[in-house]
Amino acid sequence: GENVEQHPSTLSVQEGDSAVIKCTYSDSASNYFPWYKQELGKRPQLIIDIRSNVGEKKDQRIAVTLNKTAKHFSLHITETQPEDSAVYFCAALRGIKQGAQKLVFGQGTRLTINP
Amino acid sequence: AAGVIQSPRHLIKEKRETATLKCYPIPRHDTVYWYQQGPGQDPQFLISFYEKMQSDKGSIPDRFSAQQFSDYHSELNMSSLELGDSALYFCASRGAPPGRAPGELFFGEGSRLTVL
């Protein structure tokens, strides 16, 4: 089955600096990689996703890169703001057909933005 | 826009009791997922349903069971509750617009189960 490893587990950056979170996956058949932001006690919220036919995707201050050969993908947040403080999860899903297999989450990264 | 609805939002039970969580997916979403998230942990996949049939199974204990009904809502039944079952339980649904690949999973607000 799929296994997703996420690093680092905690990350502290100064406001305005960039933050990078990295994930690796094991199942080469995985082809959908979302990133979720979760605040304490709340549901995971999708912030960006990428499919395996794309190498990079950007949405304002957030970007994701995917290296299929190395089976790793990264989240980049630029010009960080205090409201970016949260736990971030990467995830991988094998198959995009209906009824596809489970979405497997990484262990999470607690991001703290210091003012 | 309609979201994934979970009930109850909070539930307190004693050890060895039973609990039932309900999930109402977004209309026209035909895949439902259940996840368990302990304090400080990542969400752990329990079980999923596609078109009312179980499609995948994860780390769901034998004491738990789930099903999806004809109206696509799903219920997670938990029996012989243990202290370690205290967690946030998320339901998520997924669907595909006609002619397009399925998109993101949409999560409900979660049901917080506390076992005393």
Summarize it.
The complex is a heterodimer of chains A (115) and B (116). With 115 residues, chain A is mostly beta strands.
Q: What share of the residues of chain A does DSSP label as strand, in percent?
A: over 45%
Helix/strand order of chain A:
EEEEEEEEEEE
Shape of chain B: globular
Share of helical residues of chain A? under 10%
Q: What is the distance, rounded to the nearest whole angstrom, between the alpha carbons of the first and last residues of chain B?
A: 37 Å
Any idea what the shape of chain A is? globular
Q: If you compute it from the alpha carbons, what radius of gyration of chain A comes out, rounded to the nearest whole angstrom?
A: 14 Å
What share of the residues of chain B lie within helices?
under 10%
The protein's oligomeric status is: heterodimer
Whole-number average pLDDT of chain A?
Answer: 91
Query: How many strands appear in the DSSP assignment of chain A?
Result: 11
Given the helix and strand composition of chain B, which structural class is it? mainly beta
Runs of chain A in which pLDDT lies below 50 for 5 or more consecutive residues are none
DSSP strand (E) fraction of chain B?
Answer: over 45%
Q: Can you count the beta strands of chain B?
A: 11
Order of helices and strands of chain B: EEEEEEEEEEE
* C-alpha end-to-end distance of chain A: 41 Å
Number of helices of chain B: 0
The chain pair with the largest interface is: A-B, 22 and 29 residues
What summary fits the major beta sheet of chain B? 7 strands, mixed
Report the radius of gyration of chain B as a whole number of Å: 14 Å
